[in-house]
Amino acid sequence: MNPTIFNILSVLVTVSTTGFRIMWINLTDKQVQKRSEGNARSIAQGDRA
User: Fold this and answer.
1) Cα separation of 14 and 9, whole Å?
2) Is there a contact between 21 and 14 (Cβ–Cβ < 8 Å)?
3) How far apart are CA 27 and CA 19, in angstroms?
4) CB of 32 within 8 A of CB of 39?
5) What is the mean pLDDT, run by run of 10 residues, along the chain of 49 residues?
6) Which value, in Å, is the radius of gyration of the alpha carbons in the chain?
């Protein structure tokens, strides 16, 4: 296998996995924010559920 092709492939894999990780972190952050907002709202209303 050509080393330059291997280098390009490894860089592509690294970039795609980092991009996916950033997207996943952003998605989970939004879900956590929504959940904490909902909890704050329910606590303010006196509903501890």
Assistant:
1) 9
2) no
3) 12
4) no
5) 88 92 89 83 71
6) 21
